[in-house]
Amino acid sequence: MDYIKEIDDIFDELVEFRRDLHMHPELGYEEYRTQGKIYSELEKTGLEVSRDYGKTGVLATLYGEAGEGETILIRADIDALPIKEDNDLPYCSKESGLMHGCGHDIHTTIVLGLAKILAKHKDKIKGNIKFCFQPAEEIAPTGGAQMMIDDGVLENPKVSRAYALHVWNNPLGTVAIRDGAMMAQSDRLSITIKGKSSHAAQPHKGNDAIVAAAAVISALQTVISRNTDPLESAVITLGTISGGKKYNVICDEVQIEGTIRLLSDEVIKNTKPLIEQVATNVAAGFGCEAIVNYVDGYAMTKNDHELFLMAKEKLGEEFGSDKVLVPKNPNTGGEDFSAYGKKVPSLFMWLGMESDFNKGRTTIHNKNLLIDEEIIKEGIRAFIALLKDTNL
Fold first, then answer.
1. What pairing do the DSSP bridges indicate for beta strands 161-171 and 71-77?
2. The pLDDT of residue 229
3. Which of 385, 387, 360, 375 is nearest to 104 (CA)?
4. Given CA atoms 151, 155, 161, 163 in this order, what sign does their dihedral have?
5. Which residues face 76 on adjacent strands?
6. Mean pLDDT of the region 195-220
7. CB count, 10 Å around CB of 97?
């Protein structure tokens, strides 16, 4: 199978598809147009295609005809972000305040291209391949991965391993993988500080929720600096604070919201109770009450050890060993591909996208994100390399 030529043959078609998605981004669980475009393209391949997963998801299944083998799931996320694009391109977003600012349009196009190519070679494929187009990866903590799983995407036929990738600001033509943690657990935190109002000139008659909140915010930093092993990594970021109604009234209620990023099971186990303990006790010292709502978000995205070893070998054969990067540290971003990893051995890759075309503009979740579309070819090659271990 001369898949390099086959990728080249459909590349213009894939670029056109990607640009259409980019011009019409949709938020999580609202990807109805996107779903329709994906479904329509997959119907042309002759694969079994269904929209019965994840509300706005699509699943295409390829049943190999070359003998028994594993069932592999390959996931693409399809949702966009509430960002107003700031690029000067003919295919910029036409939807006000929305943008494919995380590269999901590229992920979708890569997996669609892979499905188009492999659908022509069912007679050479062992086992089965599921092409999973998942909504709402950005809707933490209720991302679309778990909904797809709940709807049975890992069953009938039963999936034995799962693969996914994400565009990354590494050089184009490289693929990065790690053994173990790739992305952090990303939890959410909200704290309500309740005090007692009084006239600002008589603070002794009230319990100032703003002062208590300031102390709580400062004290929460010690959860990391004084209660977490310095050799471990964790982040507590409090991103919003609101409270108070008038400049001369002691505030009686403050709302704080933030995120926690965690990269080890031990730190995960200890952090939640520590946050609750610190916030509650510090607020009490000011005569206030702290109501802590800690929401478990996406779990850590971990690469299976055996799949990591396989991928390092197969990707090295495909791209050259010098193009397979093994980062020293995981990233503190969150990723709901972790939900699949809790069910089956999984592998998550970072696909390099920086070239002369977009140098300095490869930061994801950014209004100026610019992606070199040559990455579509690299992504298809990366998945084919992995499938050579079992299905090709």
1. parallel
2. 84
3. 375
4. negative
5. 133
6. 97
7. 12
The pLDDT, as a whole number, for residue 265 is 87
Distance separating alpha carbons of residues 113 and 116, to the nearest angstrom: 5
- For 289-321, the pLDDT digits (tens) are 999 999 999 999 999 999 999 999 999 999 999
- Using CA atoms, how far residue 122 sits from 69, 128, 171, 187, 377, in Å, is 13, 9, 33, 42, 21
- Locate 387 and state its tokens: 């499938």
Beta-carbon contacts of 275 under 8 Å, excluding residues fewer than 6 positions away, are 189, 220, 223, 236, 260, 292, 294
Which residues are 362's β-sheet partners?
Answer: none
Q: Which two tokens stand for residue 25?
A: 């981004």
Chain segment 17-44, per-residue pLDDT in tens: 999 999 999 999 999 999 999 999 999 9
CA dist 312 and 386 (Å) reads 9
Distance CA 156, CA 152 (A): 8
Residue 114 CA to residue 314 CA, distance in Å, equals 17
Cβ distance 136 to 29 under 8 Å? yes
Torsion of CA 35, 18, 43, 125, to 10 degrees: -120
| pLDDT digits 0-9 by tens, 78-127 | 999 999 999 999 999 999 999 999 999 999 999 999 999 999 999 999 99
How far apart CA 55 and CA 52 sit, in angstroms, is: 7
